[in-house]
Each structure stands twice: as structure tokens, then as C-alpha cells.
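Request:
Um, any thoughts?
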Amino acid sequence: MAEVYEYETLLQQMLDRVPNQYDKREGSIIYNTLAPAALLCAQQAFMIAYMMDLLFADTAEGEWLDRVCADFGFARKKATYAERKINTFDSQGNPIAVPLKSRFSVENTSYVLTEELAIGQYHARCEQLGTQGNAYSGTIYPVDHLNNLGSAEMEALPLVAARDTETDESFRQRFYAAARKSPYGGNIADYEEKTLSVIGVGAVKVFPAHLMEEAGQVGIVIGDSRGKTASDKLVEAVQAEMGIDGDGIAPVGHTVTVKTSTDLPVNVQAEIKIRTGSTFSVIQPSVEKAISDYIEAVSFVDETIFFAKLQATILDSHPEIVDIGTVAMNEASQNLELSKNFAAYQVPVVGTITVTEVA
């Protein structure tokens, strides 16, 4: 039906309604009178069709998607601030106290000390929104002079990882998942929805009583906003949200235990054969990055890292690769199965990647 509302079609329909005894050729008075009207009608028809798309969740965008989902009680997740741990030392490497609200900066991000955890150990909050606050670890520098400060280090694992503003597609899929699962009264979908609403939580797996092998017991494994192992602080925050005997998220009669995943380093050894005349040192970084990206892309709930997909990833990582030799993950040339029970819930992390050339 879309073609009915195109300019040429509308103009022709208008001209067809004019008796043939009149001149309707291009350039005639009638043609020149009807052509602007047909163009305007086509533009309005396009806008009406576009407006229709904005009224439904499957095609709405931006603010319109927010408004559609708000009718059902859903709101887009906004960007948050990363919470990090900064350790301060004197010139001899001993922990040293510095004033709260001191600011540190590195790589276009800055952090302010908000809480003293111990002497020389501080809870810091990134002053920029989004995941950029999660990325850096290592030496960090004070914005202002601090007496007797020798050095400062930011730990690698965020206390609470930040997230970026939720994309349209991510928001749409979360809306669909919740709407289709009908979360209610402590079912799995209810626990998932409410746990993911806690700031800092980006992934969750719920283990009901029959898997915990004890009546009334519910196990929850959480990941941070990146779908990786969460900090102790975030685990404690979610545990507090669950409450006791119905005074939190968990309904009466449910005892909830919250924990996080354990990291499983994935070490990869790969042999590649490259095209004659190509330089291995140029190709090697591309292969290493492709392997790293593949492992990082494994989701929180995935149970298997597929060997065949890893091989395909290596082959496709650079156009100068013509073949691969031996490829192994954790010293085995087969799928890597991940433990996904409550006692040991594994999430893969990039280990050592060794790429060598074969003739």
C-alpha cells in the first residue's frame, strides 16, 4: 500500500479526475496547480506513516520508545557513575591518609574521594557518566597538590561498575522480555526484573528452590553492568535489597542468598598460516584482538565457548590468513564447558593469548 502515497501516484490520481477535454500535460496550468498539492499530500502521508511507527514498541525510537514503555511501567536505564577504589602511598610506599573530596585524574576521567575504607584506601566516584569510568586501572594522579603523597593506584575491579544510557534496542528487548514473562509474586521473572533494577547489576541468574535442594531457598548470582564478576559491595547491596521474611524484594517464605560469578581465565594458543609476503608481526595483533573480543562476547548465561566459532574467528580476523594450525582453549582443542550451578558459576575472562606462525 505504500506506493499509493508516493508523489507520482498521488499526482496521477489527481490528473485522472480531471476530464480529458482539458490540457493536463506537464507544464499546463492544471498540472502545475495539482503538482504542489500532490507533493504536500505525499509528505503528509509519509509523516503519518512515520508517526504510526513511533506509536508501537517494535518500531518506536528515542523519546517515543520511552513514552510507549512508560505506559507499562518501564523506564530506560540512565548512565551511571563508576565507583572505584583508590589506594594512596607516601614516597616509601606506605599507606597514607589524604583528605576526602580530593580529586584524581587520568585519561580524560576524574575521580573524587567520597569515603575512607582504611588508611590509604578510599572509595572514589567518577565524575563522568558512563562506562569510561570502568576502563582504567593503575597509576592515577592528583588534580591538586597533596602533602606527602608519593603515588596513588586505582584497583582494576570497580566497586560498582558504571553503565551507559540504555540503547533503544536493549531497552526494547528488556521491555519484551519482562512483558512476555509476566513477573509476579516471587517467580523467576520477578526476581530477574527486580534484581536488574538495582544500580550496577547488569546480569542475573536465579536458582529456585528445587535447584537449591531446600524448601524456601532461592539462589541469585549477579554480574556487574558489563556482565562480569561483581564486587563484594554490589553483592551486599543486592542482598540487602532482598530483605528478610518479606521486608524486601523476596516474598514471605523465601530466603535468598546472593553471590557473584567466579572468573575462569581462558588461555588460547593458536597457530596461523599467512599469505606469502605478509608480515606476521602486522597480523598478530589483529588475531589477538579477535580472540579477546570473542571471549569477551560470551554472555553471562552462556554455558559453552564453542571451539568451531573460535576457529572461524581466527580465520576471519585478517585477510592475509590462509589457514590455521593447532588451536586450543585451556590446552584442549574442543568446546570449553562452563560450570553454571549456584556453587560454582563461571564466567570466562581473557587469559593468555599466544599466536604463532606455521609454514
Observations:
- DSSP finds ten helices and 15 strands in the chain.
